[in-house]
Amino acid sequence: MSEIEVPVEAQAAPTTSATVRGWIVPAIIGSALLMQTLNATVISNALPTMARSLHEDPLRLNLAITMFLLASAVFLPISGWVADKFGAKRIFMIAMVLFALSSAACGFAQDLNQLVIARIFQGMAGAMMGPVGRLVLLRTTPKSELVGAMSVLTMPALLGPVIGPVVGGAIVTFFDWRWIFFMNLPIAVAGVLLVRAYVPNVKEQDVSPIDWIGILLTGLGLAGLIFGFENVGRGSLPPGVVAGLFLGSFGALTAYWFYAKSNPHAIIDLSIFKLATFRASVVGGAFMRVAMGATPFLLAMLLQIGFGLSAFQAGLMTFISAAGALVMKTTAPPILRRYGFRTVLIVNAVIVGVSFMAYGLFKPSTPHWIMLMVLAIGGFFRSLQFTSLNGMAYAEIEQHQMSRASTTSSMAQQLVQSIGIGLAALLLHMLMVSKGQTHMTAATIAPAFVIIGAITFISILFFIPLPKDAGDEMNGRASKP
């Protein structure tokens, strides 16, 4: 079967049918991303069980999540260029195969070091899947249809959070935790076959030279930032080394900022941050995504270690949150058409922040129906917020900027989520020290939800300056004179 190449000149007016463009292609790409989301939610819920099996402290096991996100953030900048050079469809399929193989390596790991190394390779493969799949969608879908297509794209991916906690809890409770990685293999096989059959290959006609200097500077900067943050207050590294990591990180990122201003082929196009919608989505949305990265880890600690639930019971509890997020996906387009991006983002930010803080009020004696209701409401509105942020990000992006905009947005999301996990672990450590405890309890974990929830309110400062008609081309609202 020959590959379908979509020239840049033709991308503004895709010739694929509305059904293929709006439903089939987004659903297939989203199904491939199911591996990532399923893997992330399963491992969060399985951490306490994995820690016992590997004879490690549960807090140290969060390194397996952090290093996955770190590898993704470091390798994300090159994903757009590779897709442009060799074809998005080809790279997408290769990434799925590599993700499956590294998942198998995680399953065979015998200690924390082996697990972390395998997770790094998983992150490298995942760095190609997300932005490359989104790039195919951005270049083959008119802007007026993009919010709907994005909703379809994320629906299969949301099946990971829906079934992940339950499946992962069942596996680690009744079987062996290693199967949480082996189950990626059949998903990868099905994904490759579907992508090969239906997904078009988007390839640039003229590819700019690869920016090795930019890749080196951003890689060093992001790696130093995340690894330094991971070790703050832990005592695993001397304070001088941690400070050196931060200084080196800021130095590398500052050098990249000066370098990118004079380089038209810079791997990350900083000029797109001048666009209000992109800046609000990526920078403002970062404060929401910190909580998204921290919550699965904190919920696993609270429900299993704090409340003494099994992994399967905890999975059933968190199932309702992801189910609420999945239900929201069908309602997001009409809500955005009715109220617009700005209003939805401001009002919803308050609801999401309060829901995060409400998790900290859970007690072992709290009736389960109340916990389920709060988790469902939080999942619904959290998903609405991220659908809005992801859709609005590309409202002012031109076609020739889509590749680097997709890469930049994906890199920022991975970076912020990894910071969220590191921040959650750091907060738990600091709360334990402040209470003079050597083991986590529910009283230790609960305040972390309140702190994380409060951080999300900062995002409102980026949403308020947006014009009332921001992104109206994306959500189908009639423009006001």
TrEMBL record:
Predominant localisation class: membrane
Coiled-coil stretches: none
InterPro entries assigned to the protein according to its UniProt record, in alphabetical order: MFS (IPR011701), MFS_dom (IPR020846), MFS_trans_sf (IPR036259)
Compartment(s) where it occurs, according to its Swiss-Prot or TrEMBL record: Cell membrane
UniProt keyword Magnesium, yes or no: no
GO cellular component, one term: plasma membrane
UniProt keyword annotation of DNA-binding present: no
Keywords: Cell membrane, Membrane, Transmembrane, Transmembrane helix, Transport
Top-level taxon of origin: Bacteria
Topology of the protein relative to the lipid bilayer: Multi-pass membrane protein
GO molecular function: transmembrane transporter activity
Membrane-crossing residue ranges in chain numbering: 23-43, 63-83, 90-110, 116-137, 149-173, 179-198, 210-229, 241-260, 297-327, 339-362, 368-394, 415-433, 445-464
Domain Major facilitator superfamily (MFS) profile positions: 25-471
Protein name, UniProt field: MFS transporter
Source lineage: Bacteria, Pseudomonadati, Pseudomonadota, Alphaproteobacteria, Caulobacterales
